[in-house]
Amino acid sequence: MLDGVFKTADSEDGGTLLPLDMMSLLKTLFPLPRSLTGDGVRATLQALKKHIPLDIHEVATGTKVFDWDVPREWNIRGATIKTLDGRVLVDFADSNLHVVGYSVPVRGTFTREQLAAHIHTLPDQPDAIPYRTSYYAENWGFCLPHSLWQTMQDEAYEVEIDSELADGALTYGEFLIPGETEQEILISVHICHPSLANDNLSGITVATALVRHFLAQPKPRFGIRFLFLPATIGAITWLAQNEDHLDRIVHGLVLTCIGDDGPFHYKKTVNGAVVDLATEHVLRHSGHAFETLEFSPYGYDERQYGSPGIALPVGCLMRAIHGTFPEYHTSLDNCDFVTSEALGQSFRLLVDLIDLLQRNVTYRRVDGRGEPQLGRRGLYRAIAGQKEAGGASQMDLLWILNQCDGNRSLLDIAERAKAPFSRIRAAAELCLNAELITEVRP
Amino acid sequence: MLDGVFKTADSEDGGTLLPLDMMSLLKTLFPLPRSLTGDGVRATLQALKKHIPLDIHEVATGTKVFDWDVPREWNIRGATIKTLDGRVLVDFADSNLHVVGYSVPVRGTFTREQLAAHIHTLPDQPDAIPYRTSYYAENWGFCLPHSLWQTMQDEAYEVEIDSELADGALTYGEFLIPGETEQEILISVHICHPSLANDNLSGITVATALVRHFLAQPKPRFGIRFLFLPATIGAITWLAQNEDHLDRIVHGLVLTCIGDDGPFHYKKTVNGAVVDLATEHVLRHSGHAFETLEFSPYGYDERQYGSPGIALPVGCLMRAIHGTFPEYHTSLDNCDFVTSEALGQSFRLLVDLIDLLQRNVTYRRVDGRGEPQLGRRGLYRAIAGQKEAGGASQMDLLWILNQCDGNRSLLDIAERAKAPFSRIRAAAELCLNAELITEVRP
Amino acid sequence: MLDGVFKTADSEDGGTLLPLDMMSLLKTLFPLPRSLTGDGVRATLQALKKHIPLDIHEVATGTKVFDWDVPREWNIRGATIKTLDGRVLVDFADSNLHVVGYSVPVRGTFTREQLAAHIHTLPDQPDAIPYRTSYYAENWGFCLPHSLWQTMQDEAYEVEIDSELADGALTYGEFLIPGETEQEILISVHICHPSLANDNLSGITVATALVRHFLAQPKPRFGIRFLFLPATIGAITWLAQNEDHLDRIVHGLVLTCIGDDGPFHYKKTVNGAVVDLATEHVLRHSGHAFETLEFSPYGYDERQYGSPGIALPVGCLMRAIHGTFPEYHTSLDNCDFVTSEALGQSFRLLVDLIDLLQRNVTYRRVDGRGEPQLGRRGLYRAIAGQKEAGGASQMDLLWILNQCDGNRSLLDIAERAKAPFSRIRAAAELCLNAELITEVRP
């Protein structure tokens, strides 16, 4: 527990760390006009700051970050398509998906044909608004339901996008729960999508809930660093600005699309890592359906964390897989697509996973040759009293006593014993209390 | 052949090394009142000494052995439950399973209710006597058929256990057939079970037959060390007393429950070892049904040999798996449960396996680049004359000539060639005689 | 392109390097009386020299090559079996399979019974002439159709083999297409079989076509060394004479029986090598049926290249597997058994494979941390313009940018991406041109 760090007067809950109502937060964030940069991102981070402490970084346009330059900042005040007699047909105020992200300002009368080149619809999902951006090519456009576009048969329309693309900053949020060591677990979510709930308000709200949860726990072994970043350029910016300390990251996860009620998907790290084994272990023992995916260089920021010269051990946890579900990048990815129960499952799974990573210690038998005599240490009794779920069994104790050779971690032993980590951990606690094992520090 | 080592006047067979009648030995040993310590163990080792040489060690009560102390010695002269009018209902003389091992002395009249707390039966196997011990908690008890206990409805009974739990010694037997090198193969059996035939008189008699067999053979490459020990504390005692020389053990096997006619089961060593590959090879080519089991820390003394800081390459060969067959630890594990044929199969398999381990040499081609010319060395003829089983084929010879690179052992080559070791070994002999290969010593 | 190396006046095609008509070459070579040594081999190599440059080596009888001595040279002018009244029943002029290879000279009248000991037929294939040799035991014999032998019921026959077994030389052909480095790819074919088309005129003609193809290409990274050798003794001779430079061979293939229209078979190198992975990759993406075979020490010269002390990374590519097809080592393995289409497929597959081995470079991202910005380099457009087969896709580019860490070769990346090498190579070219990656030399 970090005293004084987060008991501020403006906390919605008065400075206590009650469990976060994730669904309520998600709905609050939903209408904010997020993009790669700009005031929508700032408003989002300020909204999070009511629940968790957060360092907000502003990185100036043009700053060199690895191979990239921080782009100009985009802001938008409004946008409409009107009939020539002034009837509003499309209004950014109704949905921030209506305007192609990073659209340059435009105002004027366009023939339907001229306008058509700037209209994006989904003929196969005629009632859905698509989500489109044009970050790196100057352009403008509107996204609207195909059904609406089909009704728009006037010769010409009045078009206005009241936006601004100008030097400014890229904004991201960061918070570190300090650990006993300099090593860190990284949790990274992207914050650049506007009104899309699963992709990625689900990741943002679950990460926020994790910050609150772990702030209320005793100081962990590894620090836990949370990043709330615009995708790609945000991760690259953070990597470039923290290049000297990247070796502190010993485990990491990108969270995306974890609010739907489908099975979990875990995409492995680029070179294999303990977090892969740990996540599979937790998923396997969670009772939830899941599938493990091989690493590929297409996806979210695990690409950046796993690029050559970086190659951090960062996997990606999702439920629905981006690009493959019908609601993806459309107005159908709304607050109804995400469920409170699914957010809760994802949150609890991540708590278990982070706990496992924190507690995955390597032990060595103290003067350990042959099995120790358990009877005179009262360990039989201790075990008998622990038969409830999560407690160690006699067999778990034998695994610990046999396998703690100073090389195998508790997770390695749990996998070999085909037992949940929690039980093996409980057996290790008993042995630790009996001074039969001792921690081995790398 | 060890001249003079074992041609003593008191040998039952007059000092020759005729094959042992294992079934007869097993029946001789069956009634002896073995326990963790005491005169039943001594009588057992003396009975073996009529067939094989044996060093009998006595380790005093209280001796510190790793984490343990050698326990007090237990002896029992008799035990009965009588009706108050003197009728004997349960008598240790009928079965040494009737008394819980390490029962403290008791004598007196007990109500049925008082007695019931000390009675062990098997309601699901009402005619079987269970086997129970209480080594490390002072207690006493009787084991009897559930059917008998149900007929015992008197108000009270006369109970007597004429036992003694006192400072003394732990007794174990050991014999080394010396080899040409200091390295050793370990064969370990437990001797602490009273009248149970498969678990583990089968192991004891087969180990005894192996001693006789290998004593009659030329001096082997590796010494073969045989241990006849009380389980757990015996192995820990031996390990503690031989700690400085454990690196001599290059292969090892615990033998248990190998007298029933079920399929073989081989439980692998804790960290993987050549003996795992060798045992699977011999089993696969034996024609017997078998299954390989992963290591687990529950079982017999492979646990101790495989504990951290020890980690010897010792697997466990069994047929029925302890704890899983209905006769296990009951009076049904008697001389009828074990068959002479099964003991013979186990013996022959172990002879083959130990021979393989002894002969699993690594060779290198002498000036070997390209295939040698076989014709001028008469090797074609040699092969033609060897087509009987066990002899080398043309193909085996090619495997030897191609694969003897100074790194691969004959077993490695046999596995790659998918040929039985005996054939690959025969091909190696031909090449050795033709001076085409030479032994590589580590 | 090697200017001046192979534009000689006596080239059939006047010194240009038009694609070789492999079937025509094969038919030209078919009747030549090849054996382990002798003028048939010389005539074969001279015939090849009309199409490709070739160094022809003569190694004197008795030369010590590793464990072997170069054998005496065998030449044959003719051989017949006649009836006593002079009617020719069997004539070497009709088929050079009629005489057992290395038959000593013989002339005289033999009873049918005497002759029978020297007659080889195939009762199960009564119209086929078998192929037999007796290289290392002095003997003589005739091979004829079983149906013919059954009609030969005279009491005696006139027999003549006009051969000569005398000191001379072993002859082989060799040609190196030089590369930019000293490292080489080895292509080896055996040339000791007389009128057998698939085994191995197919290998000889495809190898010849490969020489012509690669001579017409720009200088490759690795040299390509072609060997046309008598089997076993030829390979051993070449290895013995080039022992000091064997480490130049970084990849190698023995070609045999690659002219039939069956599925491809690739037999792996003795210790595993990149050529195994490369060949499987090319076969998998070729659309041809294929199977991969484990290394075994029975076969062609991959045995010699893979023998202890040599252990070169040389696999064997075949279609029909020697020893397993009905036409094998009989007169049925004739020019009809081989098809022009199959030769062409084998040729093109080998071109792809050798190209892959040449181009399987390892790259490193230049200052590569995080993904580079593709847009400003016009790489999106470049990709869009490359959607035809063989061109790189957006995904291939991401794989290259993510995986080029200085350790993984393009083949490793192609395998991980499950993409054909050509596409991954195309993506690498784009990145190389954009100076995003740089070659890593070992």
Automatic annotation (TrEMBL), chains A, B, C:
Cofactor: record remark: Binds 1 zinc ion per subunit.
Question: What InterPro entries does the record point to?
Answer: DUF2172, DUF4910, UCP015244, UCP01524_HTH, WH-like_DNA-bd_sf
Cite the UCP01524 winged helix-turn-helix domain residue spans from the record: 362-438
Does the UniProt entry include the keyword Zinc? yes
Summarize where Zn(2+) binds, as residue positions. H193, D199, H329
GO molecular function ontology, one term from the record:
metal ion binding
Q: Which cofactors are reported in the record for this sequence?
A: Zn(2+)
The record's section on Pfam families has: DUF2172, DUF4910, HTH_47
Which residues belong to any copy of the DUF4910 domain?
25-360
Q: What is this protein called?
A: DUF4910 domain-containing protein
